[in-house]
Amino acid sequence: MKPLTLIILLTALLAPSASTARSAKKPNIVFVLADDLGWRDVGFHGAKFAETPNLDALAHDGMIMNQFYSGGPNCAPTRACIMTGMYSPRTQLYTPGGKSKGSVNLMRLLVPARGGDAEHNTLESRNNTIEGAHTCIAEVLKPAGYTTARIGKWHLGPDTQGFDLSTCNGNNGPGRKHYGSITVARTMTDRAVKFIDENKDKPFFLYVAHWDVHGPHRALKEVVKKYKKKSQGWDNATNEKPNPVYAAMITAVDESVGRIRGKLKETGLDKNTIFIFSSDNGGTPVTTMEPLRGAKGALFEGGIRVSTCVTWPGVIKPGSSCDTPLTSVDLLPTFAEIAGAQLPKNQPVDGRSFLPLLKGKKALDERAIFWHYPLYLTGNGAGKVKPVYGTTEPYWRGVPATVMRKGDWKLFYFYEDKSVELYDVKNDISEKKNLTTEQAERTATMKKELLTWVKNTKAPTPDKLNPKFGRTSETGEELKAEGK
């Protein structure tokens, strides 16, 4: 054999094939986040009116996370928790703008304003911004060789925190709000599939944060028409609210998931991609959260338990489920471990990786998870008597409180009167029976751990009476906070 021929033959034999190189590549990570999607709004949790075939297929092909929680009861705190792996007292984000919402004269306590406008009972206004010193997911993954994209709702200030691609609507348009757009889900998905095409030969992290199903509720006419027809004669055996427009918005998110998964399969990347879907908080009154108590804005299950499923061919067992309580702060350390990336050294990481659960481990060591909400939040247009968002509270859906979940138990600590409530959420998912009397020792132990956490995280806690509590303006009208 001639020397040149031998060299060519050896080179061909020793060089890795394209398929071998691709299989050795680090896994891609796709994370799709819905906005205000209710826990029961998907087929894999029993919904029948809104059709979610793509989300149901995702759940069928992978794992349903039955007890996954958002980091906060509304959008901004959850997104900050996701991006940083830290609880809200560390990110200092609790609501959009850090403001209470409702009548100031009905707020019993002053929140600790820290330089904010106490006249409106608010925290320091931060414009939803994550501090630049905080390291976020993209900045964690990039040193590990990942190209990163953020498409859709950001809601964390002007800084995109290290993403290679950052767009709010898929068209590189201005960073404005796109609530109520009937086409934004499609334009975002167009950009997502293009990003996959552009980066199929290197590992990527793709974060698609939908504006749907947040209000105002609008959708494509042809899809709404389909659901209007379906609503006629709807027997409602599943106790849903058959809202055609809302269902059409859910369809927009579902179709997006289907298109992204389709592109992954088309490019051969699906077998080396972990795909996770979740929501930023619970649903709103346009849907039903039953049997969960409360909804968006509340720290009861209806406000923070969110529909979540994940697939990863060859790693996650199809048709599996996970009952371990998990939360948004766990995403960053999980993604970091999957990518072989280092966790931030300049900030604490409150979450922990749940990769062992994805690989089939039955449970992780028991730990406590926390929520902290030092503000007031009423319902949209709620009156003084009518209960808000399915709660028993006559006006507020959110009052200053810290909540702790440990094992099957969930403890509420309310700052207005320093009262506590304890629920066994495994056996009482609706949080109807307060067990503080029956479980006095457990209550005391959990309360001590909760207050220690509050102290260690330097969480702002209201403890001063609001001088405007019970007052009205000179015209006799309620004094309104300027929250959003």
Automatic annotation (TrEMBL):
Listed name of the protein: Sulfatase N-terminal domain-containing protein
Keywords, in A-Z order: Calcium, Hydrolase, Metal-binding, Signal
One example GO MF annotation: metal ion binding
Gene3D superfamilies registered for this protein in UniProt: 3.30.1120.10, Alkaline Phosphatase, subunit A (3.40.720.10)
Disordered: annotated segments: 458-484
Record organism: marine metagenome
Record InterPro entries: Alkaline_phosphatase_core_sf (IPR017850), Sulfatase (IPR050738), Sulfatase_CS (IPR024607), Sulfatase_N (IPR000917)
UniProt xrefs under Pfam families: Sulfatase
Lineage, uppermost ranks: unclassified sequences, metagenomes, ecological metagenomes
Cofactor(s) needed by this chain: Ca(2+)
Family label: Belongs to the sulfatase family.
Record domain Sulfatase N-terminal: where: 27-340
